Structures are given as structure tokens and as C-alpha cells.
Amino acid sequence: MTADQEMNASRAGESIPDRRSGRLSRTFGSRSAAARTSVVFMVVALFVSALTQPQASASSPSHLHAPLAELESHDVLDAIEARARALAEEPYRPSDHTLPEQLASLSYEQYRAIQFRRNRAVWRNESLFEIQLFHPGFLYTEPVSLHVLQPGDESRIAFDRRYFRYVPPVDGLTGDLPDDLGFAGFRVHYPLSGERKTEFLVFLGASYFRLIGPGQVYGISARGLAIDTATQTGEEFPAFREFWLVKPQAEQNHFVIYALLDSPSVAGAYRFEITPGPPTEILVEARLIARNDVEKLGIAPLTSMYHHGDTTVRHVDDFRPQVHDSDGLLMAASNGEWIWRPLSNHRHLRVSSLTDENPRGFGLLQRDRAFEHYMDMEARYDLRPSLWVTPQGDWGKGRVELVEIPTDSEIHDNIVAYWVPEQAFKVGDNRRFSYRLRSFDQQLPEATSGHVVRTGIGWGAVPGQNNPPSRSKRRFVVDFQGGPLASLSDEAKLEAELQHGSGEVTDLLVTPLPDGQTWRVSFRLAPEGDQLVDMRLSLRLRGQRLTEVWSYVWYPDALQ
């Protein structure tokens, strides 16, 4: 079975760790025992650590260190926050857990051969939700601790080899495994689109989790927190160390998960209120305590992959026209603008930002849903979800930062987006953030403006032209569709508003396309030497903006 076939099996409720579980995440450095200052490749899942629980501070209210099952629901997060604060007041202690060598050295194929027994699912036949568990091993060498919370009872889910089926080539492992292994993570099943329960949510590796709605397959990942991404000191990967799963009532259509996060620089308490179904939503509450100064705090991080597509300007030897989990960053700014920044697989690491105060939302989208644009029956990139972050309350000044990392393979996650607060996060600081995370397809219902459906880039020469210009001269084609544009006739006098930071722009034209639904803006750009060109483009009618803002940065070294 290929990795892509495994993704489809996952969609059918037969989930096993797929290409994403073993997918490599490219980061600008990684901080462990020593800082690295060059781009390196890291396996994100290697940073999951087992929890060491300190006692709560003696000055804390008594209920903060009471058994969680005895607390009211609104006090549970306070209690976990107290544990996080106690962690942050002590030097960081990495896990001393040692996984047996026969598990740590498992290959991907061997790890796949360890299968969870469905009839052992947590809450089976007791709830609309069921929890299945991931075995430690392969990349997942430092297990997490799992608990079930219900009125009057908190129980730890202890490792039991009877949860799993060990088939060849790992059928000989069972007799040598200790009883305190713990679990690598867990996945959640629910009747998303019928009576049969299928998987829609996974927590596996560091602070990573994935969610889908009906008709979608896994692609983009969310993370609990990003620390110092794309910095010279190297990225730090916080990890969820411990989870508490609150048992829902029999017919309840939502449930709650609590988590304790830890890393060398930050400890935190999280609450996830999960509501599956169209769309799947998670209300996230994060309470963070700084153990050390943080150069760059990334809130509500999203991680994805873009290998090639509309913005690719070099030849890719692939039968598939496009390969990506996401094709653009969308931001709803506080001034009412919707800003669309198409993704690219650049030759060098690129970091760009959209500044704002109290943004209305942001997300990474898979806007192109046409199968014929991917032609991949295994990966089904046309069914990958988009994820949208809606802040709850005011987040203040800051920026949505987009990190685009070069990749030569679709197995690498190379796109990261997150919110960076302007206010520094210093040792001893406490910070709280709340946001709603939502899965959807290509378009948000609240985004009613005309939107970009295609970005094309090519040589700016005219076919057959004598003395053609340098290949540095580019022609851009941006197609808009939907919203107010749908009601316009071909005779409408639309105007393109184009702003650019440098270079010379010529031949700016607006043209209706033959489909009667799409308007095309085309122009030629001559950059100034090796200077990047930051551009903003939208369509107006008699001074009124009808579309979102296309925002793109052209890097001349893309042609090298």
C-alpha cells in the first residue's frame, strides 16, 4: 500500500500513520542541545516528550491541585494551568523515557503492521465518539500520557498490548514489551456523514493535530504553538505531554480535550472543544507561561505543503499539473480587507508578513478543488481541507507571518503560517489566546467579495517578437471570480488597482473571459535588478472595490 492509498484508507475509517506521520518538516534551523544557523531538515514528531508532573505551587488556591475529576469544568483548565506554571518555574527537564530498541528502530512498513483493534476503542458503544490509540515506535519514541475524565472519576489509560494486533513482520514483538510504554497519540471517530463512525481528528507528534470535515482527506496540520520558526537561533518544537479526554454523554455531538504543553521556553495549558461535522470546528483556549525569553511566538500555527502549481516558473518532471495541500494564505484584516497571498515553492527560504491590529481571521486554503488540476487518484489533493483561524477577543498588534521553505519532494511540509504578537514574550510572562479553528473547502461563507481563482506567471515576451526582452521581464495573469462579479455583464468598465514597490509595470489590462464568470487582470513587470517586488491588486467599479486583494511578492532569483 502506498502512502497515498493509506490516506484514502484513513478517510474510510481505516487510519494508520500515513505520509504525514512520516513526513519531514523543513525548518530554518532547530534548537536542541545547540543552536544551528542553517536550514536543516527535522522530523517534527521526534520532539514529543513524556510528562514529568510537578506539584502545584503552595500559594495556589487549593482547588488547583485537587484531582481533576473533583473539579467543576471551568476549574479544570485553571488546574492544568497551575501545573504548567509550576513546570515553567523549574528548569526544563527533557524526558528520560527510553523506548525499547525494537520499537525505536521500526521502519515505516513495520510500524504500519501494528494495528489497533477496533473493538478496544475507548467509549465504544457508549458515545457517538470513539478513541483509538497509536502505538509508540518508529518516529514516536517518547509517548504521551492519556487520561479519561468523567464525573467523579479520572482514570489513566494504561498501555496494554491487547489493544493492538501485531502482524508480520512485527508479530514477534509482543513477548518483549514492558507494561509502561504509554501511547504515541490518539485519533477520534464519529459518524460524520452517516451512521458509520469514521476518523476526523488526530493528535500525533509534538503539538501537531489534524482535522477534517465530511468528504475531506487529511492534508494540512494545525499545531498548538510555534516557537522561533525561521530564526537564526533555530526552531523549538513544543510538545503536548499529557491529555485529559472528557467523556461525552451518549448522544452528545461535541466533546472536550485538555492538554499540558511543555518545551525549553514555554509551558502551557490547552482546552479543545471539538464539534465535528460540516464544518468541523475546534474552539481552542491556550494559556502560556514563558520559561525563557522567546524571540518569536507563533500563535495558532498551520503547517502545509506546496510542491508545484500555478505559481511554479520552472519545469517539474511530474505527470500531475499541481501537487499541494494548500495553495494560498487568506487573511481577513481588521479594516475589512480580504487579502489573498498565493503560495510558491521558492528556491530559497522566504518569510513574509501581513501586519494588522486585532485581525478578523486567517488561514491556509486549498482553493483549487478541480480534480483535473491534480490528476492524482491516490493523494486526492482536490479533497484536502482548508483551515481557518478566527480569533476570539482582541489579539492586539502583530502580524500574520508566512514561511515558505524550498522542497524537492511532496513528503516535506514546507509551508507555515501563524500570528506573531507585537508584544515580546519574556521569561515569567503569562499570555492567553482563544480562537476557533474551522475546516472547510475552497470558500468561506463570510468571504463574499470576488476572489482569486488563478495566478499565472510567465515570460513577458510577445511570441515571435524581434529582440525579445530579458527573461527577467514577467507577465502576470490573475483571474477573479464570484461575489459581485457574478452579476456583471461583459460591458462593465472594471478597473484594476495595482500597487507595486519597485520595478516597472506595463500593459495593465482587464478582460472578461469566455466563461462569463471570470475577469482577468494581466500585466507585465520589469524588476529593477535583483530587487524583490511586493504587489497588491484588486478590481474596482466606479471606485468601489469588488474583490479581495491579491498580494504577491516576486523574487527575481526564482529564474536562476
Tell me briefly what this model is.
The protein is mostly beta strands.
Largest sheet: 15 strands, mixed
Instruction: Give the helix proportion (percent range).
Output: under 10%
Q: Counting H and I runs of at least 4 residues, what is the number of helices?
A: 4
Percent in strands: 35-45%
Distance between the termini: 38 Å
Radius of gyration: 24 Å
What's the pLDDT, averaged over the residues? 88
Morphology call: globular
- Could you list the spans in which at least 5 consecutive residues all have pLDDT below 50? 1-17, 19-65
The tally of strands reads 36
Q: What structural category characterises the helix and strand content?
A: mainly beta
Can you describe this structure?
The chain has 560 residues and is mainly β. It is built from 4 helices and 36 strands. Strand 8 and strand 9 (198-204) form a beta hairpin. The longest helix has 16 residues, at 73-88. Residues 1-17 and 19-65 have low confidence and may be disordered.
Keywords:
single chain, 560 residues, mainly beta, 15-stranded mixed sheet, 6% helix, globular
Secondary-structure map with pairings?
Elements: H1 3-11, E1 24-27, E2 40-42, H2 73-88, H3 101-104, H4 108-112, E3 114-116, E4 130-134, E5 145-150, E6 153-156, E7 164-166, E8 185-190, E9 198-204, E10 208-211, E11 221-223, E12 226-227, E13 239-246, E14 255-262, E15 266-275, E16 281-290, E17 297-304, E18 306-308, E19 323-324, E20 328-332, E21 338-342, E22 350-357, E23 361-365, E24 386-391, E25 397-404, E26 412-413, E27 415-421, E28 430-440, E29 451-459, E30 474-481, E31 495-500, E32 504-512, E33 518-526, E34 533-541, E35 544-545, E36 549-554
